[in-house]
Amino acid sequence: MPRTVLVTGGNRGIGLAIAQRFAKQGDRVAVTHRGSDVPAGLYGVRCDITDPAQVDAAFDQIEAELGPVEVLVANAGITADTLLLRMSEEQFSSVLETNLAGSWRCAKRAAKKMLRARWGRMIFISSVAGLSGNPGQTNYAASKAGLVGLARSITRELGSRNITANVVAPGMIETDMTAELPQARRDQLLGEIPGGRFAQVDEVAAAVGFLASDEAGYITGAVLPVDGGLGMGH
Predict the structure, then answer these.
(1) Among residues 43, 92, 124, 140, which one is catalytic?
(2) Single pTM value for the model
(3) Which of 6, 30, 126, 192 has its CB 3.0 to 4.6 Å from that of 169, i.e. a possible disulfide?
(4) What is the pLDDT of residues 106-155, one digit of tens each?
(5) The CATH number of the domain where 19 resides is what?
(6) HEC profile for the chain?
(7) In total, how many domains does the chain have?
(8) 188 lies in a domain?
(9) Is 140 a residue of the active site?
C-alpha cells in the first residue's frame, strides 16, 4: 500500500535520491525546501525547520494533501565548518538548531499521527563525522552524534507502538561538492576508505528504503553506516 513519506531537505543531493526512491515505488512523497525548485513527482512544501510554526504548518499542509506522515526521513542539514578556536557562537548554535533541533521538531510532530495509527518509521540522516569526529566540524559532528541519542530515546518511548527510529550514517558520497575537491584531497580520502571509493547517493537511499520497509520492523535504535568501512561500524 502506498504510504505518505516526508523527506526534509529532499529537493537535492542525498535527500532528493531518497525522495525519488520512495516515489518510484508508488509512495506519496513530500519534501521540504527553503525556496528551491522541486522536481516533478514530489510534493514540495516550503519550510524552515528551525521555526516551530513553519514545521506545524508544513505538516498541516501535507496531512491535508497527502495524508498523515507515516515515514519521516529527517535529512535537512547545514554545515559551518571552522576550527574550534575560530568557531563563533552563531556558527555552533545555527548548525545544532537545524541539524538536531530541527529533526527533533519534525519527529515530535510526526509522532502525533504515528501514535494514533500505531505504526511509523523515523529515519535520521547522520554522518560518519558524528561518530568518528572530524577536524573543523565540532558543531556538525555534535549535531549528527545527537541524532543517535534522539533516535534511541524515541525507540524507548515509542517502540511498543510499532514505531521505529533508526539512523543512517553516510560516509563520503559522490556529490557536486566532493567532485570539486582537489585530486590530492580526494586521493587522501579514498586511501582511508576500505571500500576504495565514494558512495553513490542511491546507496544511501537504498539503506533508508530498507529501514522504512515492513521487513525492518524489528530493527530500531540502530545505526546503519553507509561508508565503505570507514567507520568500521562505529
Answers:
(1) 140
(2) 0.96
(3) 126
(4) 999 999 999 999 999 999 999 999 999 999 999 999 999 999 999 999 99
(5) 3.40.50.720
(6) CCCEEEECCCCCHHHHHHHHHHHHCCCEEEEEECCCCCCCCCEEEECCCCCHHHHHHHHHHHHHHCCCCCEEEECCCCCCCCCHHHCCHHHHHHHHHHHHHHHHHHHHHHHHHHHHHCCEEEEEECCCHHHHCCCCCHHHHHHHHHHHHHHHHHHHHHHHHCEEEEEEEECCECCHHHHCCCHHHHHHHHHHCCCCCCECHHHHHHHHHHHCCHHHCCCCCCEEEECCCCCCCC
(7) 1
(8) no
(9) yes
